[in-house]
Specification:
Layout lengths: L1 H24 L4 H18 L10 H25 L22 H21 L15
Length: 140
């Protein structure tokens, strides 16, 4: 349960921060928006779960980042296809006035970060219990 909460918090903070930054710099429109949401997924994949320096191999973090990029791009296409007409009355969110949900990077980036952060944290939560040293055989 703690890992799930950590995934929500870490993924949400990373997604919201990168989404807000992209919205303020104007990188959220068109093809750059698709790449930006992929980058959010990749960064969440690197920073959520087991830390980079505690991984068994570097390939684990690389695969989490690649899968996060693909998930971010896929979520962008799906969001623009099925949520393109959804307008939320949230005037306090920067850039949300007269825009659909997938076109507000501070919100949609947070959604991508939370969902993938939870997946990565839950995946890394399962560990193998420490094995005991084998006992010597008696009587021989």
């Amino acid at each position: 349960m703690v890992r799930l909460f950590l995934g929500i918090v870490k993924g949400g903070v990373i997604g919201a921060a990168l989404g807000y930054l992209a919205g303020q710099t104007g990188l959220a429109a068109g093809p750059l928006g698709i790449v930006m949401y992929g980058v959010i997924g990749a960064v969440v994949g690197v920073f959520c779960g087991r830390p980079l320096w505690r991984q068994d191999t570097m390939w684990t973090s690389i695969l989490k980042a690649v899968f996060g990029f693909v998930l971010g791009v896929g979520a962008t296409f799906a969001g623009r296809r099925w949520l393109g007409g959804v307008h939320l009355p949230l005037s306090f969110v920067p850039g949300s006035a007269d825009h659909a949900l997938p076109d507000v990077p501070a919100l949609f980036g947070t959604v991508i970060g939370v969902v993938y952060g939870m997946l990565v944290e839950l995946d890394d939560a399962g560990g193998t219990p420490p094995t005991a040293a084998p006992r010597p055989l008696k009587g021989r």
